[in-house]
Amino acid sequence: MYQAVLGAKHCLDRDVLPRDIRIDNIYACPPEYFVDFEYEAEPATVWSLGIMMYRTVCGRQPFTDQHDGLSFDSRMSTAERATMEEMLHHDWFQQEQMSGVAQESSRVT
């Protein structure tokens, strides 16, 4: 997940829109696209990465495609959508075991 976030941030930092983030191809459309017909690169990318992380952790989609709205797993916390920088600074990515991945990824740029 950390490498996916770094890869997406790398693209966004270079004004490249990574529009194909999903579990199969790391992409899931954010809700504002369907509500407002708007698409902003960073929030959409964060949404897609969040969907991928949710499916990885829970083993299923975070919501059902029903008329009664979005239904999330009660084991997950509710929070506002993060930014790319906030995702990179999340506790999950600050563990000792991530230090090697972060060092290698920073050398790639």
Q: Would you kindly provide a written description of the structure presented here, covering whatever features stand out?
A:
It catalyses: L-threonyl-[protein] + ATP = O-phospho-L-threonyl-[protein] + ADP + H(+); L-seryl-[protein] + ATP = O-phospho-L-seryl-[protein] + ADP + H(+). This protein has a single domain, classed as Transferase(Phosphotransferase) domain 1 (Transferase(Phosphotransferase), domain 1), CATH 1.10.510.10. The chain is globular. It is built from five helices and no strands. It is mainly α and 109 residues long.
List the helices and strands and how they pair.
Layout (H helix, E strand, L loop, with lengths): L1 H12 L17 H6 L4 H18 L25 H5 L10 H10 L1
Helix pairs in contact: 1-3
EC number: 2.7.11.1
Enzyme class: transferase
GO molecular function: kinase activity
